[in-house]
Design a protein that fits this description.
heterodimer, A: alpha+beta, Uridine Diphospho-n-acetylenolpyruvylglucosamine Reductase, domain 2, Uridine Diphospho-n-acetylenolpyruvylglucosamine Reductase, domain 3, Alpha-Beta Plaits, 4 domains, 5-stranded antiparallel sheet, 18 strands, 21% strand, B: alpha/beta, Fumarate Reductase Iron-sulfur Protein, Chain B, domain 2, Rossmann fold, 24 helices, 50% helix, globular
Chain lengths: 461, 434
């Protein structure tokens, strides 16, 4: 069957205006937010409802055409890049918030709903969906679930999987949409396939709807800064904060590179020579937030901070968090190619690990920034390099290998929140038990016997 | 694949083109993407296509043009871009390279498809065309530079009547202040004020008079050229820029009540300079351009006088719509609000999303009519949510678009230019002289 017949079938399913095949239309679905992965799909289709997704999945399955689901394309793993060509299944037009149920603390959404739009709708009812991947302005719920994404508040609230009650997904083996889980927080009926599909990176089926678990919007929030003259010392302070019995909502680590960047771009007047800064957010009842804030500042000073300060009001806090986002973003455009890792180590090992990372890069003569979500040990050591400079790029890749190995050695994991996709695939065999990879392959066969769903991801064939 | 032309302009703005790190955060802000949800309409998608021309992967194809044409140049993406990518520059440069390579099909087809079939509009267009031929020597009777508001004619819009008398016949060239003058300023009405809203322009001139300015409507000035060069017609843009700069660079201040003209005049230096000396000249010119609100606030801070509300607006609940060409292109946000809050008799309320684009985007409103209308509907919802019965702004294009959206929804809300609202205390009344 010629591909043109597949296109005709797609047009019959989704309508002429929702099937794109021109060069330019395919080119803009060849990338995600990583700097190095690129592959063009042969066709792009925008389904309008689950029924159309069923039709598309059945078609792709019957014809053995690779099918790569995609939301906002904000992921940083190469996961939504259609590396084997075929069909890019773009969920962005299925973007409705179907219902919000305050009495159940739940909401039902279509997969293409953008997180920020959801948060806007929830805020009006004093509710929140806690997971906060920092791509919230473009990321869709389907993608967030498929990547089991996390962000700063995961210190206190956990990652996406803790907030998914149910998933509707079109499974190739079933040839139709299947509802997994339900709407209740307690549900121990058989295997937890909701958690399995969460984080499956589009390799098992196409998520079309989800039931989300919500929380009440915290009554108060407070933002604090603590400055350090030594990067690992900031890591030690994090452990001491938890030891003091306080669980902040966010603890972000910024290094000297980012501090200077923030001073330039956001006009903040932080000391240019500070080696590290921790940014805390505390949330909860106003009285508790105040006393916790005082405690965190005391603990940081005891840990050797050179100074601490609290945001005077919400507007100032917001401007600090915006500066932090911009500072992190600046890292990713600091060099032609940035190899940003997503390793996560136990909090207690973080100071040692930071020393190790800066040591590796220093010995190799490479520039590195160490930033990340210090509260949960999830760091993004980012090595600045240039893909076009072969020698330098090779050196940078070796450094990244060593960083990853060090993380594993310290009892950590390869990826905390970005997922494996293409970016971290090469580390899988080296770092994981062979049975784990084999089990994943078998599970995939059960869901997707012909291997059409996002092929070429997570493990190397 | 079609060969890529010289890519002269894309190369010139290479730093902007390569700044994007593909995070996709623009998806939340881009009004075009929020309607289409297709990446080719998104700032990131356009940027990646433009970037791909530099490596030869992407030609200056029709599909490429569709992508770069599908942009309002509202700069909302630029405002929020974490990498501070100036995508508007990449897009404008790409339009220019496409125009140089393939020619712009746009304006001609506009006239053919929308204006000519409509007898009433045709008559108006003829009047326009004759005027343009007069002020734009060498345009050869082609309609490539037709400005925004003409593009909004047709296509089922509610549009204002063409004024019975143009501004030139309403006001003389020299309009002296009633008392001793503190300043001599050039007033740049722009095409919309000349032909569609001349009475409003006359009120702006009277207000400036009242605040102690001798106002000159220099007869040598022409269309600002923004509609032409923002669409990629740099040749026409250059011709108009040179005409306006030589006519007006002798004045200390060039004041305009049109947000688009203000942006157009100020951005000559960004796109149109032929060499370094001309760039300096255009930058010096840009530094003399002032928006009406900006200028009035400056005059008031010098105790030039006070403003009083025209009686027709007494007791109204007013909200401000930020034109993209004013807020993001010229960074003017506070001044108009300052005026609206200070004038007694008016209640000021902020609408949610006051700086969200109204969706006109010049010829965008014709070439992407449905999307333009839907974006305008969102704006109308914001206005309704504010509870205001008066929307104040400073862009004739926005005024046309807002009036259209409001009348389609049968809302009881008036749209006014900020210059229509008040007169100067103690000075001659700035009433409609026509």
């Amino acid at each position: 069957m010629a591909f043109s017949e597949i296109i005709d079938s797609l047009v019959r399913i989704a309508g002429r205006e929702n099937v794109l095949t021109e060069d330019e239309d395919r080119r803009v679905y060849s990338y995600d937010a990583t700097s190095q992965w690129k592959a063009m799909p042969d066709a792009v289709v925008f389904p309008a409802n689950t029924g159309q997704v069923e039709g598309i999945v059945r078609l792709a399955d019957a014809k053995g055409v690779p099918l790569t689901p995609r939301g906002g394309g904000t992921n940083v793993s190469g996961g939504s890049v259609p590396i084997r060509g075929g069909i890019a299944l773009v969920m962005t037009k299925m973007n409705r918030i179907l219902s919000v149920e305050p009495e159940n603390l739940s909401a039902r959404v279509e997969a293409g709903a953008v997180l920020m739009d959801l948060q806007g709708a929830l805020a009006a009812r004093k509710l929140i969906f806690p997971p906060d991947p920092q791509s919230f302005l473009g990321a869709t719920l389907g993608g967030i679930i498929a990547e089991n994404a996390g962000g700063p508040v995961c210190v206190k609230y956990g990652v996406t999987k803790q907030y998914i009650l149910g998933i509707k997904a079109v499974i190739p083996a079933a040839g139709r949409a299947v509802e997994f889980g339900g709407v209740t927080v307690k549900n121990v009926v058989g295997y937890d396939l909701v958690s399995l599909i969460t984080g499956s990176e589009g390799t098992l089926g196409v998520i079309t709807e989800a039931v989300l678990r919500l929380m009440p919007l915290p009554a108060a929030r407070k933002t604090l800064l603590a400055l350090f003259d030594d990067l690992p010392k900031a890591g030690e302070a994090v452990g001491m904060v938890f030891d003091s019995g306080t669980v902040p909502a966010k603890i972000e680590l910024l290094d000297n590179w980012v501090i200077r960047s923030i001073n330039r771009t956001a006009g903040m007047k932080l000391p240019e020579n500070a080696a590290a800064m921790l940014m805390f957010e505390l949330d909860g009842r106003p009285e508790a937030v105040e006393s916790d804030a005082a405690k965190v500042m005391r603990v940081c000073m005891a840990a050797g901070a050179t100074g601490t300060t609290a945001a005077g009001n919400d507007a100032e806090a917001l401007s600090w968090w915006r500066a932090r986002s911009a500072g992190f973003a600046a890292v990713f455009s600091a060099a032609p190619t940035v190899l940003a890792e997503d390793v996560t180590v136990p909090r207690s090992r973080m100071p040692e690990f930071i020393r190790k990372v800066t040591g590796i890069c220093k010995t190799m003569g490479l520039e590195v920034t160490v930033i990340g979500h210090a509260g949960d040990g999830n760091l993004h050591p980012s090595v600045l390099t240039d893909q076009k400079n072969a020698a330098h790029f090779e050196k940078a890749k070796i450094a990244v290998d060593r960083i990853v190995e060090a993380a594993i050695e310290f009892g950590g994991v390869l990826s905390g929140e970005h997922g494996i996709g293409l970016e971290k695939m090469k580390f899988m065999r080296r770092t994981q038990d062979p049975f784990f990879i084999e089990a994943m392959k078998q599970i995939k066969k059960t869901f997707d016997p012909r291997g059409i769903m996002n092929p070429g991801k997570i493990w190397e064939d | 694949m079609k060969t890529s032309g010289s890519l002269e302009n894309i190369r010139k703005f290479r730093a902007d083109v390569e700044q994007c790190m593909k995070c996709g955060f623009c998806g939340y802000f881009c009004p075009v993407y929020r309607e289409s949800r297709m990446e080719k309409g998104l700032a990131r998608g356009k940027n990646q296509l433009i970037k791909a021309t530099l490596t030869g992967e992407q030609g200056l194809t029709r599909g490429f043009y569709e992508a770069i044409d599908n942009c309002l140049l509202c700069k909302t993406c630029v405002q929020y871009c974490p990498a501070k990518t100036r995508i508007d520059r990449a897009v404008t440069a790409a339009r220019a390279d496409y125009a140089a390579d393939a020619g712009l099909p746009l304006a001609k087809s506009l006239v053919l498809r929308f204006v000519l079939p409509n007898r009433r509009l045709f008559g108006a267009a003829l009047r326009f065309a004759s005027w343009f031929q007069h002020v734009l020597p060498g345009s050869g009777g082609r309609f490539r530079h037709l400005p925004h508001f003409l593009a909004a004619l047709g296509a089922g819009r509610t549009i204002p009547e063409i004024a019975p008398r143009f501004l030139r016949s309403l006001l003389p060239e020299n309009n002296p202040a009633p008392g001793p003058a503190r300043r001599r300023v050039a007033f740049f009405p722009g095409c919309a004020a000349e032909f569609v809203f001349p009475e409003t322009a006359a009120m702006l001139v009277r207000t400036l008079n009242g605040l102690g300015c001798d106002v000159v409507l220099d007869r040598r000035q022409g269309c600002c050229g923004a509609a032409a060069y923002f669409s990629g017609d740099f040749e026409t843009g250059r011709r108009l820029a040179r005409k306006n700069v030589s006519a007006l660079e002798g004045y200390d201040s060039i004041v305009t009540g049109c947000a688009t003209c203000g942006a157009g005049l100020r951005e000559y230096a960004v796109y149109l300079a032929g060499d370094a000396a001309e760039k300096r000249r255009l930058e010096a010119f840009a530094s003399r351009v002032a928006d009406f609100s900006e200028f009035v606030v400056m005059l008031l801070s010098e105790n030039a006088g006070g403003l009083q509300l025209n009686p027709g607006f007494e007791g109204r609940k007013a909200t401000w719509h930020d034109p993209c060409h004013l807020s993001r292109h010229q960074e003017i946000r506070e001044q108009p609000r300052k005026i609206l809050k200070a004038v007694a008799g008016l209640e000021f309320v902020e609408m949610p999303g006051a700086d969200r684009c109204c969706g006109l985007g010049g010829s965008f409103s014709i070439t992407h009519f449905e999307a333009s209308k839907r974006i305008a509907d969102l704006k109308a919802e914001s206005i309704a949510a504010s509870g205001a019965n008066l929307v104040v702004t400073a862009c004739p294009g926005c005024i046309i678009q807002l009036r259209d959206a409001i009348s389609r929804r049968r809302m009881k809300v008036e749209v006014a230019h900020i210059g229509e609202l008040f007169s100067v205390k103690g000075a001659a009344r700035a009433d409609n002289p026509g």
